[in-house]
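Suppose you are handed a protein chain with no further information: no name, no annotation, nothing but its sequence. What can you learn? This example shows the usual starting point.
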Amino acid sequence: MPSPANPPGRQALVLFAHGARDVRWREPFDRLVQKLASALPDTPVRLAFLELMSPQLPEALAELAVAGVADVTVVPVFFGQGGHLRRDLPALVDTCRQQYPTLSIRCAAAVGEAESVLDAIAGYCAASLCTTEPGGT
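A reasonable first move is to predict its three-dimensional structure. Written in structure tokens, the prediction is:
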């Protein structure tokens, strides 16, 4: 149940991904959005792309602005802070702030920068090792 200080729709989460030509590339991102929407039922969760896929960030933010959202956190679902996150995303967010002055837009660091994410990936990698010797059954 939302608190009076944080009514439904006041805050939103936008997962920001690169985009790809192969539509199957987005499947894990769509699953992540579904998981977050279930975990945060009072928070709009959207997926937006830098290029090659829709919606792109300005479109996702426009939808949230029209819906009356006031605060948006953009979470880059990138492994690291490369050129897209150091140059392209800040420029894009600045443009969106001008287009949607009612939105307060904040950006988190790339998910791959979080120790908890790296720990989860390390655990996955370690678990992927075979438990039997090569050539064994």
